[in-house]
Give the backbone structure.
Amino acid sequence: MPFYCYILECQDGSFYTGWTIDLVKRLQAHNSGRGARYTRSHLPVSLVYYEELDNRADAMRRERELKKKNHNSKQKLINSFNETLESPLLKAIPDASWLVISPGRVNFLGEHVDYNNGVVLPAAINRYVKLAIKPHGDNTVTLHALDLDASVEFSLKDLDHKRDVRGDMLPDWALYPASVAWAYQKEGFTPGGMEAAYMSNLPIGAGLSSSAAVELAFAEYWKTIGAWEINRMRMAEICQYGENTYVGVNCGLMDQFAIAHGVARCALFFDTGSRTWQPIPLPLNTAIVIADSTIRRKLSASDYNLRREECQQALVLIQQQKHNICSLSDVLPKDLEEIEGFLPSVLMKRVQHVVEENERVKQACRCLITDDAPGFGKLMVAGHASLRDLYEVSLPELDALVNIAIQIDGCYGARLTGAGFGGCTVNFVEWDQVENFSNTLIDMYANEYGMTTSTYICSPSRSVHIEQIGE
Ligand code: NG1
């Protein structure tokens, strides 16, 4: 029988160390308040580290050793546990002095409303972009995108032309870091030169915000190094501004917000209109499983911008009749009938989605607060139907993944996550059923549709953060 010594990260960022013979059950016990007095008052907790030992005595001895370590030493241990990404980074830049860890994000509900001043319910997830940086005094940035096996160097003095130091156009992937430097400059800040390498275990272009994770990683570094007094919301907004204006992707604020504000074990309720937000713990004994349709989309070339335009057209028509409406999220469900009288049917479908999706997010928050996982799951399924039928951004493959998922035991709900047109589904699953759910989904999708999916079991993570290497 294996014995484990483990470290939990509590909601306030503190660590708890223990030993067990069953990690899953022990984590559940902690999260249901039956683990230890300390964790009971610091819930929820997530597992961030474990070691397997041969016997009980060794596990208890190791627990005592770990308990004596201070917070920083434990953090280092956790970092080394996650080293799969870090060692290639440090091989690429051996004298790097900073490491930035930037999570991806999943969205539970509130899709295509962030550019309509609506409410969204995303979470940062424990899959990351990691960035190792060596600052230098020149005004150049040398980047190594290890996943792409590509490098580029550009000058911070000439970002407008989007060219590298040799005069060639910047490759698409380099536009994201460059956009952050450019947006900071527009705000009056002066980002410094660096050599940097980055890697990710987030699938790229899968609707899990790998691009925003890259942006926030660079933004966090420059902000920290410059000791600039910018709060996290402003940092997210600056990244969004760069992505909209420099990269040319007309995204809302949800992705950057979630990565800048993630809280372990929590979904993030965010009102994109008022910019207010609140973390809400997920119900106990639940897990997130992401299923990748493996269909990739290129956002700038997709129908995403068309959907935004349709929302804008609908808003103009509605405002001609109803003068108090500033955004589609001001439309109330009771107004829909009247609006139907004067909107073309396609625009009507888009508006109905936005209005009802906002309602679903509010109801979903109530479900989370009352630990109503089945109720939450039903709203996710309704959200998917709306994205499929009203907003028309789903694909047969995404519909199939959702249809299969909701038949499997322990699945509370499933839906596509992100913009649609490809990418991933998010599944909300009973903790004990996670392995079975994941395997059954993969098998059924292959048997019924002849398609392959890969799944990722995730939990909500803390926000982007930076560490000094060797400190
Ligand atoms: P994804 O699919 O994660 O790239 C996109 C937008 C979000 C939001 C969602 C739909 C980008 C980079 N992000 O997310 O702002 O509008 O679609 O809810 O375009």
